[in-house]
Amino acid sequence: MTMHVPEEFAATSRSGRNVLLKFKPAEFAGRLAATRRRLRERGLDALIVFAQESHYWLTSYDTAGYVFFQAGLVLADDGSDTVLLTRTPDLRQANVASLYDDIRVWLNAENANPAQDLRDILAEKGLRGKKVGVEYATYGLTGANARMVDRALDGFCVTEDASDIVRQGRLVKSRAELEHVRMAGKLADAAVRAAIDATRPGIPDTVLTAAALTAMLAGGGDIPSGGPLVNSGPRALYGRGIGGPRTIEEQDQILVELAGSHCRYHVCIEHTLVTGKPDPRQRDMLKVAKDALDQIKDAARAGTALGTLDDIHRKVLDDAGFAKARYAACGYALGCTFKPTWMDVPPMIYSGNPLIMTPGMVFFVHIMIPDASTGLTAGVGQTFAITDGAPEVFSDLPVQLYCC
């Protein structure tokens, strides 16, 4: 098995700590400078970071601590210190594996209010009465914690939703990021191959999940931020995974949708598997799905509006008689993401989305035809990057109905 173990880069933080990073220091310096430039263009004096993806992209800080109150502070001024407010269990990795300049800890107690600690940091940095952006649109900030932050900052400074500031920078991948995306694609292919090889009647469909995850981890990948989705039988028509195994039957169908993850960068692929004799109707459905996917890849060009891809999806499926079965969108952006999802949205690929595709953007397009009238499903999906020409597709697996 080919191993894709990522390299780590030794560096020294501005505060003099020796750290190990996921990218070279210059990559992070460029990201931080661009973020500060966008803050100034927006008229913001600082950004409070709650999205774990932002922590990681800006400083290499990788943790599950975002399930608690955890905030980063980035001032718009070049050369100013970045500050992380976190909990004790995250202190060590913040110190040795992130470029945060100043790391503070809040302590659990009966009446602890880390939002007050955050306000004290903002006051220390001269942000009283200033305009501060907040990353609200993230799993790293619960509704309860958002209300706590708003109460703490009410009357102290002016806040606005700036969830798009870092996301805007993350949308277009650098050359170094695309290398991780390519590795994630290889891991995703290996995972699907392992699931196909494991498929046979009489076993729980969770065996396929186990085979897929084992292949990814053995190949040097991470546990993906979602899935794998392995739905068999009538569950193959579901749009989400479901708990509890189901035994694969002699005549059955399995929808496999999963993401390979390399240094938190994800590549998704989707395929349909069958046991027994393939139903000719399902073969025809798969051909329709593949045709839509192929036409979308042909149209995925820099300078084109993202929504045009879903226009193709709708037309191909509607013309084939699947208007009631198709989804209202056909994909979304991918990047470095953390649980609970590999979806790096916005943007979604829906009809009318005006976003202009740019080289370096990475999208997952999946064509799902869950036909409730027949109980059959056909699903295919691939991830690709926008380039100056044809998109770069991150999967080598043939798009076909896999007979196991």
UniProtKB/TrEMBL annotation:
SUPFAM superfamilies tied to this protein: Creatinase/aminopeptidase, Creatinase/prolidase N-terminal domain
Pfam families linked to this entry: Creatinase_N (PF01321), Peptidase_M24 (PF00557)
Location of the Peptidase M24 domain: 179-387
Lineage: superkingdom: Bacteria
Domain Creatinase N-terminal: 31-172
Name of the protein this chain belongs to: Xaa-Pro dipeptidase
